[in-house]
Amino acid sequence: MRFFTPEWAEAARAAVDAGPEREGKLPTYWNWIDRARAGYTATWALGVRETGEYLLLTWKDGKCAEAEITSDPGAADYVLAAGETTWRELREGADPGRVVMYRQLRLERGDVLAFFRVIYFFVESLAALSRIRTT
């Protein structure tokens, strides 16, 4: 499957909706993720700086309901972008938490405080998305 295509976007929606693998972390961590996700409603635009393309993920009541590839993040609640190198590293197994912490994937628009209140939910969603096999 090719990266940043409509087919990949649907696979990304399904992956983040299903959530990450739950091995290797304490049950209390997953309880926190479940609480953060419950009722979550927002739109994320995850972009590639060099191409200007975005994966637009729409969350409604804790479910990732829609996904599309677009060149306009529009009214997304949170716009984040990274370079092609960072996206490749994520697909090759880079730690999503580190990618966010070291600002390789940067929040470019959105309420910083509200975004970071659910940061581990976002990181685990990014981890699920990064496991999709692409060419």
Describe the structure.
InterPro entries: SCP2_sterol-bd_dom_sf. It comes from Nonomuraea aridisoli. This is SCP2 domain-containing protein. There is one protein chain. With 135 residues, this protein is of the alpha+beta class. The chain contains six helices and five strands. It has a five-stranded mixed β-sheet with strand order 3-2-1-4-5. β1 and β2 form a beta hairpin.
List keywords for this structure.
single chain; 135 residues; alpha+beta; Nonspecific Lipid-transfer Protein, Chain A; five-stranded mixed sheet; 41% helix; 24% strand
Helix content: 40-55%
Catalogue the unreliable spans. none
Order of strands, main sheet, comes to 3-2-1-4-5
Oligomeric grouping of the chains: single chain
Radius of gyration: 14 Å
Main sheet makeup: 5 strands, mixed
Number of domain units: 1
The N- and C-terminal alpha carbons lie at a distance of 6 Å
Beta-strand content = 15-25%
Tally of separate helices:
6
Organism: Nonomuraea aridisoli
Protein name: SCP2 domain-containing protein
Walk me through the topology.
Elements: H1 6-18, H2 27-37, E1 42-48, E2 53-60, E3 63-70, E4 78-82, H3 84-91, H4 96-101, E5 106-109, H5 112-117, H6 119-130
Parallel strand pairs: 1-4
Antiparallel strand pairs: 1-2, 2-3, 4-5
Give a quick summary of the entry.
This is SCP2 domain-containing protein. It comes from Nonomuraea aridisoli. By secondary structure, the chain is of the alpha+beta class.
